Amino acid sequence: MRRKLAAGNWKMNGSRASLTEVDRIVAAAVGLGIDVLLCPPATHLVWVRERIGREGIRTGGQDCHPEHHGAHTGDISAAHLADVGATHVILGHSERRLDHGETDALVAAKVRAAWAADLTAVICVGETLAERRAGDTLEVIARQVEGSVPAGAAGHNTVIAYEPVWAIGTGLTPSEAEIAEVHAALRAQLHRRFPAEAEAIRLLYGGSVKPGNAAAIFAVPQVDGALVGGASLRADDFVPILAALDAAP
Ligand code: PEP
């Protein structure tokens, strides 16, 4: 049985003032039967970790360098994230693929670095609107998974987030049938590549998850939770999403 996971990706948002939101999220998450992960900017990881205290909520980075240390000014290694208590790292987010030209091969190298530091990689894949309109969604995602998810993926070290690029931050979402189609294809691909671990790897949906659509999305087969951007910044938005996931079938 896969435990459900709600991950909040603050991106380049939030501030010290947002730590009061963390307090409210922690208070609401304690006692729920789901995993909760907060991924603030790296500068705020220590503060968020301190605010969570001993509660079981996890923290994660939003990227890491493929190497463990060295002359890479401005970069952060998986070891650094682990050193400040992070257990996860988001990798291959479409904003990194677009803003920084990250390829599947680079994402895979980062995933291996994350694993070496005992971090769980939350690997993002998703099609653009042009790719969806061209009917290429499943092919694009299969190619991204093939290239971005290295050999060795398992339930304890890998989460895959299906995030249609056109749904991120836009208020648009795919239909439930479209999400179901992609998640079924992802699960089938995992079975082909990692037969022993395929059922243990969690599949998240990400892209404009809000309190108003969360329950419907979480009812879709093979959706094990969500990667949430904008709605993870405020407890008023994120807490109802956590509750919806907790109540999901
Ligand atoms: C994201 O950036 O991973 C994301 C899903 O963003 P949003 O929820 O704001 O669409």
Characterize the structure shown.
There is one protein chain. By secondary structure, this protein is α/β, with parallel strands linked by helices. The chain has one domain: TIM Barrel (Alpha-Beta Barrel). It contains ten helices and eight strands. The chain has helices spanning 19-29, 45-52, 78-83, 94-99, 104-116, 129-133, 137-148, 176-193, 211-218, 235-247, and strands at residues 5-9, 35-39, 58-61, 88-91, 120-125, 158-162, 202-206, 225-228. Strands 1-2-3-4-5-6-7-8 form an eight-stranded parallel beta barrel, surrounded by five helices. Strand 6 (158-162), helix 8 and strand 7 (202-206) form a beta-alpha-beta unit. The longest helix is centred in the last third of the chain and has 18 residues, at 176-193. The protein is globular, with a radius of gyration of 17 Å. The model has no long low-confidence stretch (mean pLDDT 97). Phosphoenolpyruvate binds at residues 9, 11, 163, 168-169, 206-209, 227-231.
Explain the layout of strands and helices:
Blueprint: E1 5-9, H1 19-29, E2 35-39, H2 45-52, E3 58-61, H3 78-83, E4 88-91, H4 94-99, H5 104-116, E5 120-125, H6 129-133, H7 137-148, E6 158-162, H8 176-193, E7 202-206, H9 211-218, E8 225-228, H10 235-247
Parallel strand pairs: 1-2, 1-8, 2-3, 3-4, 4-5, 5-6, 6-7, 7-8
Helix pairs in contact: 1-2, 1-10, 5-7, 7-8, 9-10
The structure holds phosphoenolpyruvate.
